[in-house]
Amino acid sequence: MSVAKITEITATSKKSFDDAVQNGIKRASKTLKNITSAWIADQSVSVKNGKIDRYEVRMKVTFILK
């Protein structure tokens, strides 16, 4: 039997939402082992001078406990 835990993280990127997700998973993988999935709970952008400056995602990451 496996036991899973979910943690919420926020990640950003200057390029895209997809890149923000990749950055978040990459960073989470440094401290969380056995990540199995991520659910995108929210997305937003920061705007400067009429242009998108930063993409931000809030995601729930699921990982299996040993």
Automatic annotation (TrEMBL):
Pfam families referenced in this protein's UniProt entry, alphabetically: Dodecin
UniProt superkingdom: Bacteria
SUPFAM superfamilies (alphabetical): Dodecin-like
Name of protein: Dodecin domain-containing protein
